Amino acid sequence: MPDNLYEIIRYETTNFKCVCGQSSAAMPHSHREIELGLILRGRPRLITPGADCLLRPGSLWLINPYETHAMRTRSIRAPYAFLALQLSMSFFRQYFPQAEYVRFGLTDLTPATVGEERHALLHSLLLKTARAYFAQEPYYALRTAGCINTLLAEVLEAVPHSVLTDLELRKDDARLARLQRLTDYIESHLGEKILLSDLAEREGLTLPYISQLFAREVGQPFQRYLTAMRCRRAAALLVETDQSLTDIAMACGFSALKYMTQGFRECYDCTPAELRASGIRVARRVEQDSHGPGSAELSRAQSLRWLEEQLKGETDDAKASAKPVDNPSKNSTIEGETEGAIK
User: Fold this and answer.
1) DSSP alpha helices (H): ranges in the chain?
2) Which residues form the domain of 205?
3) Considering the entire predicted model, what is its pTM?
4) Which of 43, 256, 257, 262 is most buried, judging by how many CB atoms fall within 10 Å of its CB?
């Protein structure tokens, strides 16, 4: 078992933020910011209503505003490390107002989907943006903002996107407001019996419609989402309190301990008892955090060390690519030589 199920760094003194951390499971959630992320280590699955993709070290992902997404590994024994930039598209309002109307059509940004050269450029720009953010050198906010502008321009060049009309944006806002009401209600009533039919009645919707709404907007059936949210709450209680497993199961809305155990096996690939015995630390819960049972802030120095390692790797790769070949006749195929003759 790892020492930490989830570690995260956040600095929220500006209207943009970078998040750098380690996790095993990010439960389904959404936020108003656009998110561009990079996997530093591990192989998590990224799940959205329109995509289910396996990410690898070096993978980039892109999440639209209010797009529900989740990320998980096959086991809490195999956490992933990540870097993410989150910013509201209103950041560009004064000089590029159409940014708030943009919706991107790709989630997994790979060399195959955006091109190798563009992928490498986005990778490098994201690292440099994060370094400027975490270093907090003089005028760091201006330096970071400059990087962000360049980064968005390159994303717009590389990724297929649409521009919503005013009417489409209002409909989008109404749809997202409804989804937010539903998820807020679930979050505040996890310890109670929650039926999908009750939620439908609250919103004046039919049962088939609200069922499809969850599948479409959250990317999973209602019952699976509800179980995941209850497991997240239970995981927090397991590591923060000495309550018995049965009491925690009841407090989180499970009708019996066995159902909580089933949920934990699905979400965390372990039992509640194994999670409690794993020695996970929870220093401070971050408000509205979605990444597991809690979070512990890491030092800015540790963030910078991760980023410097990544940037150094890029520099070493560039030097290796630019290094001249000492003796071309011994290291390359002679023109006209057949492939089969090469040993």
Assistant:
1) 111-114, 116-135, 140-158, 166-188, 196-203, 207-217, 222-240, 245-251, 257-268, 272-277, 300-322, 328-331
2) 167-277
3) 0.78
4) 257
